[in-house]
Amino acid sequence: ILLDKDGKRKHTRPTFSGQQIFALEKTFEQTKYLAGPERARLAYSLGMTESQVKVWFQNRRTKWRKKHAAEMATAKKKQDSETERLKGASENEEEDDDYNKPLDPNSDDEKITQLLKKHKPGGSGLLLHPPEGEASV
């Protein structure tokens, strides 16, 4: 028995063996809540008090909820970023509508040049008119 500086009993934290923790974790995987008789049986089989089992389960549920909430937040972030990516892709498709339309042979060269610059790296991969003095092929 430990005493504090005033001579009162000091509360000590119980340490559980690996076997006890393993059994508690296995039980927790199957059920997150234990009813009184189940808790009493488990406590007896592990050499623990019912109160220790009860508190262990309370603490474990809290840990589980935090982890579950973090996983849900991560999944939501991933889903949101995917939605944004798809949204951005569809906006680009709308911008590409002009590019995907057949070109009007009577349209001005400036419009065609702008479209080519917008969609080709460097923007000068094609010549619309051969330089003066050269024959077109």
From TrEMBL:
Source organism superkingdom: Eukaryota
Gene3D superfamilies in alphabetical order: Homeodomain-like
One Pfam family from the record: Homeodomain
DNA-binding region: 9-68
Residue stretches of biased makeup (Basic and acidic residues): 77-90
GO (cellular component) term, any one: nucleus
Coiled coil: none
Record's subcellular location: Nucleus
GO terms for biological process, alphabetical: cell differentiation
GO MF term list: DNA-binding transcription factor activity, RNA polymerase II-specific; RNA polymerase II cis-regulatory region sequence-specific DNA binding
Cross-referenced InterPro entries: HD, HD_metazoa, Homeobox_CS, Homeobox_NK-like, Homeodomain-like_sf, HTH_motif
Spans annotated as Disordered: 67-137
Domain (Homeobox): residue spans on this chain: 7-67
Transmembrane segments: none
UniProt KW Repressor keyword: no
Keyword Lipid metabolism on entry: no
Alphabetically ordered keywords of this record: DNA-binding, Homeobox, Nucleus
SMART domains the UniProt entry points to: HOX
Protein name: NKX61 protein
Organism: Cephalopterus ornatus (Amazonian umbrellabird)
Organism placement in taxonomy: Eukaryota, Metazoa, Chordata, Craniata, Vertebrata
Protein encoded by which gene: Nkx61
